[in-house]
Design goal:
Blueprint lengths: L33 H9 L6 H12 L13 H11 L4 E9 L4 E8 L4 E9 L2 E5 L3 E3 L8 H5 L1 E4 L2 H16 L12 E4 L9 H12 L13 E5 L3 H8 L6 E5 L5 H7 L8 H15 L3 E7 L7 H11 L4 E7 L13 H13 L4 E3 L13 H5 L1
Parallel strand pairs: 4-7, 7-8, 8-9, 9-10, 10-11, 11-12
Antiparallel strand pairs: 1-2, 2-3, 3-4, 5-6
Helix pairs in contact: 1-2, 5-6, 7-9, 10-11
Length: 374
């Protein structure tokens, strides 16, 4: 992508912004805007209003069995389903934790690529963590997905289907706590969302548009994470979608961040934070700073002080993440006392901070672990 200032054919070990070309996933209802859905139905020789009917079944009723589409003539259901709702993903493994309220699913896509999604039910909300790419090209050394490399970008429908699948489980009462709905989506699964920019923005519209065009979720319940692709952060700010921006910072100084987050060699900490503040000013949404605490690497007291200095007075919240180590990795979570001191220093510096709930640790919770094991 020339607008990102990166070469199209990176050398081994360099960042990969362009996904390898593979066979396209089947075209799906969720890939298409309203006009595209009507055109697809018209191509079958059917009236355009059938597209809205199928949209309501998929997005509102969460009904994937065409035999239940009783407002559509029985003779038309199978052909419409084959055209607009072809199968996209097959579950390979599902692991549960927290008495079944955390559910991680490994999916195999049409071409054999593997991705993961996680459903997390809390007393006051249900969050789906979704993948935007199969693998990741950002090459962060402490991340299981980053070490696997990039396989390909996901399609809009492949992203949306992860959310719809979780919504179906909830609606059917298959998750402890009774029937429910997905209230929050975080793009914090496999991949760098802003490296699959157009598809992710289309997925945001499918999540937030009202049925029959989408799931009707609040944009304020959606978080898009990035390692700091500055041009894309600025572009996202202009989309008119007030989603939360989560910046995976992990170090307040360029010397360390160049190693932990290699994209920092292209856009330095100050540039990335400037783009984040522009995003906050445009959207009026508080930016979340993601910071994985790594023992003896980025958890020193002086780095907490430097982080507080960089963030003080901004519309920001720090989300400290105890590192979920991957098998065989030299990286591990900070000592509890170092974590507490890091929190104390941020709070003393006037910065809002929380420590992320460490759900899923016993089920290969770190993104990419399940796919790597498979």
């Amino acid at each position: 992508m020339t607008d990102l200032g990166m070469p199209s054919r990176p050398k081994p070990g360099e960042l990969t912004f362009e996904a390898p070309r593979r066979g396209k996933p089947p075209r799906h209802l969720a890939d298409l805007d309203a006009a595209g859905r009507r055109e697809a139905v018209a191509a079958l020789g059917l009236p355009a209003f059938r597209a809205d009917q199928v949209g309501r079944h998929y997005f509102a009723r969460l009904a994937d069995d065409p035999s239940t589409w009783t407002d559509i003539p029985a003779a038309q259901r199978e052909s419409i389903a084959a055209t607009l709702t072809p199968p996209l993903m097959t579950p390979v493994r599902e692991l549960t934790a927290d008495a079944g309220t955390t559910r991680k699913t490994l999916w195999r896509l049409h071409d054999g690529a593997l991705v993961e999604s996680v459903l997390m039910r809390y007393p006051d909300r249900v969050t789906m963590c979704v993948s935007s790419q199969a693998g990741c090209g950002m090459n962060c050394p402490f991340c299981a997905t980053g070490q696997a490399g990039l396989t390909r970008n996901l399609s809009t429908a492949e992203i949306v289907e992860q959310v719809v699948s979780g919504a179906r489980q909830l609606a059917a009462g298959q998750v402890p706590g009774g029937p429910g709905r997905v209230s929050n989506v975080v793009f914090m699964g496999m991949g760098e969302p802003l490296a699959n920019y157009n598809v992710v923005v289309a997925a945001l519209h499918r999540l937030t548009d009202e049925p029959p065009a989408g799931l009707g979720m609040s944009a304020r319940g959606i978080t898009v994470s990035t390692v700091g692709l500055v041009p894309r952060i600025r572009q996202l700010a202009q989309e008119g979608l007030p989603v939360t921006l989560a910046l995976s910072l992990h170090a307040p100084d360029d010397e360390l961040r160049d190693t932990l987050v290699p994209v920092n060699t292209r856009w330095k900490v100050s540039e990335v934070l400037d783009a984040a503040w522009e995003y906050a000013a445009t959207t009026k949404r508080r930016v979340s700073i993601e910071y994985a605490l790594i023992k003896d690497v980025n958890d020193q007291a002086w780095r907490a002080d430097l982080l507080a200095k960089r963030l003080r007075g901004k519309l920001v919240h720090v989300n400290l993440i105890p590192l979920n180590p991957t098998p065989g990795s030299k990286w591990t979570a900070s000592r509890p006392e170092d974590e507490r001191e890091f929190v104390r220093r941020l709070e003393a510096g006037g910065v809002a901070v929380t420590v992320r709930d460490t759900r899923g640790r016993e089920i290969d919770g770190a993104c990419g672990q399940l796919a790597a094991a498979e």
